[in-house]
Amino acid sequence: MKTIILVGGGHSHLYCLKKHIQKRDENVKWILISPSRHQYYSGMFSGYTEGIYPLEETRIDLERLCEEAGCDFVASAVLSIDPDQQHLLTDKGDIFTYDFVSFDIGSRNDSMEIEGLHEHNLPIKPNYRFPEQIEKLHNSRKTVFIGGGAASIEMALSLKAWKVDNGYGDHSVSVVHSSPLLKKAGSFSSKKITEVVSSKEITLYDGHVEKVDGTHVFTEDGASIDYDEVIFLGGPKAPPLFASSILPTDEKGFLLVNSYLQSVEYPNVFGTGDCATLKDFPDVPKNGVTAVRQGPVLWKNLNGAAAKGKIIPFEPQKRYLAIMSIGDKKGFLTYGSFSLVSRWAWRLKNWIDERFVGRYGG
């Protein structure tokens, strides 16, 4: 009997578990290893922060899903992998042997490039950390977000909306960014989202953060911003697991995979989502849209590899629809260089998000 181990409860692995409910191969044993029983859906992080969703509506019960799929669930974190011996070591000291293993463990919201950040940053990734940290943001009188991308802007706007709704409008929310907001969406969208952020009385600091201490964020041009909580959302950072292994990684430490989602040197090791970089398409965004689309390919390839059958390549999209929640049940929709602000965009996002969580049992 072959053993397939899924490490992490990310979007692609959720798809595989759901498909396994519908189609089981009794010659293959499936195991899911994840540090938390619940997988929190990143698309609802902003809505939970704003107070729109209760916690139970934002998460998926991995143990229950595994039970339905006939898959073993192990509540542990994988600390290391030996791809030659095909062993995994967990934080509880257990060793698991696999025939095939797939990683969908997300990324970190941290940066070792900024002096002092690691000691003072509020970690919300891996995402099982998220719920316990939101209360700190709600209580923070001065919150500083580092990063000018969608994750940072969306969280800042959602937090500000919560504070205004709950009588804490005097609490400051700031964003420090070293490039135009939503730069990858184009200059038109960048200008539009900058206007939105400014209209919500969120303070913008244009500069590169070079140091963080216990009370202040310092930029290279001399700005000093005091804070109660600081959170880095300046782009995904690689999980430490791969750097401590012999698995090939890209220059940033992400697992390097081919178009079939296999490690470039170990074809029985797969990787999807934020934790992996496609060798032939290194600029593919590490976001939920990519991870969701990789799910069907991963399912076919894990089963194909186990049966010594056909596997298929993943083909990235050139453009994709993205919707940010910007507070007060309004959405900021982008598609390529096109963007708009509307309530129906938020309703569409809400429908997509609720359907995703509902599909996997909530």
Produce the secondary structure layout.
Blueprint lengths: L1 E6 L3 H12 L5 E7 L3 E3 L4 H6 L8 E3 H8 L2 E4 L2 E5 L4 E4 L4 E3 L2 E4 L13 H4 L9 H10 L2 E5 L3 H16 L6 E6 L9 H13 L3 E4 L2 E4 L3 E4 L4 E3 L2 E4 L7 H4 L11 E3 L11 E3 L4 E3 L9 H19 L14 E5 L5 E5 L2 E5 H17 L3
Parallel strand pairs: 1-2, 1-9, 2-5, 9-18, 10-11, 10-16, 11-12, 17-19
Antiparallel strand pairs: 3-4, 6-7, 7-8, 13-14, 14-15, 20-21, 21-22
Helix pairs in contact: 1-3, 1-9
Label the overall shape.
globular
- Major sheet: order of its strands? 5-2-1-9-18
Terminal-residue CA separation: 31 Å
Helix content: 25-40%
What's a concise summary of this model?
The protein is α/β, with parallel strands linked by helices and 362 residues long.
Question: Overview of this structure, please?
Answer:
This protein has 362 residues and is α/β, with parallel strands linked by helices. Helices cover 30% and strands 26% of the residues. It is built from 10 helices and 22 strands. It has helices spanning 11-22, 45-50, 62-69, 117-120, 130-139, 150-165, 187-199, 240-243, 288-306, 343-359, and strands spanning 2-7, 28-34, 38-40, 59-61, 72-75, 78-82, 87-90, 95-97, 100-103, 142-146, 172-177, 203-206, 209-212, 216-219, 224-226, 229-232, 255-257, 269-271, 276-278, 321-325, 331-335, 338-342. The strands form 7 sheets. The chain has a 5-stranded parallel sheet, with helices on one face. A hairpin with a 4-residue loop joins β7 (87-90) and β8. α1 (11-22) packs across α9 (288-306). 45% of the residues are buried.
